[in-house]
Amino acid sequence: MARAAGVSEATVSRALRRLPHVAPATAQRIEAAAAALGFTPSDSAAALATGRTRLVSVVVPSVVSWFYGSVLEGVDATLRAAGFSAALIDLAQADGVRRRLTARELRSARPIGHVVVGFELDAAEQALLREASAPIVTVGARIEGVPGIGIPEERAAEMVVEHLAALGHRRIGHVGADREEGMNPAVGAARRAAWAAAVARLGLESRPEWFGSGAFRIEASRDAALAMLGAADRPTAVFAASDISAFGVLLAAQALGLRVPEDVSVAGIDDHPFAAAHDLTTVRQSPREQGERAALVLLRGLGVGRGAVPAATPLELVQRASTAPPA
């Protein structure tokens, strides 16, 4: 094949592995020669020869989540386009609490990079990743000194509160999250703090009982909203920290005989695939795009690809029928 393309065997190897420092015209000529000869490179053979796989581990706390699944789709598609593969490490347990990341899992597939999605690693787990001496990128989580992709959490929450206030609501409650064991507490904390700050900045009414923790789960969010909306002195609008939480608020309103949006407005964050079906006003983020960007940052760390990748993905307020001026 090297003879057919008029280059050295080393250049052929670099081009077929999509490594840098091969001119585009040369790479095209090599790929054309490979296609003409019916040659398909073997990742396993290359790994045996070089001691390096083309696998990237994607560590998630659970796969039973539209967000994590969408991020994984974006990571996998981008890696495959560059000739790499994703190895999933799912830390879910039956009790809903993630298990700890182990050195054995990280080393079994000999990944050359890691993408950590949506949860907080403790100090020991972070040390495991750092000892691997491989590039690391996070999505929706933060590790000191590690590049991360996500959304501006505070701004997303502000957009919801500002939207409800612009409609005329002065009493805006919040169904959010405190600390989910084994998950990432930063998201719930950031959105709660931004809600409180926006309420104060806009001069709106504030009551401690207008916050309830739903732990980003439908049932817990429903229970928190039942307590909040069942009181005589209830808010006229509820900002839910996620669309999943908002679905729980909608269930609570239905159980209490409250009409949405006539009696209470409800808005969330995410634009979950079911949000449109529930006519839910929400702030749209794109987890698949976040996964794509994370993979691009990781590939750049591996010497594949060039150019800066923005860390924050854009936000968009999507107004639907679940919000309206207060009665």
Structure, described:
This protein has 327 residues and is of the alpha/beta class. It has three domains: 2-41; 49-150 and 287-301, 3-Layer(aba) Sandwich (Rossmann fold), CATH 3.40.50; 153-284, Response regulator (Rossmann fold, 3-Layer(aba) Sandwich), CATH 3.40.50. Helices cover 42% and strands 14% of the residues. The protein contains twelve helices and eleven strands. A six-stranded mixed beta sheet has the order 7-6-8-9-10-11, with helices on both faces. A five-stranded parallel beta sheet has the order 2-1-3-4-5. Strand 3 (114-117), helix 7 (123-131) and strand 4 (136-139) form a beta-alpha-beta unit. The longest helix is centred in the middle third of the chain and has 17 residues, at 185-201. The chain is elongated and about 80 Å long. It starts with a helix and ends in a 9-residue tail after the last strand.
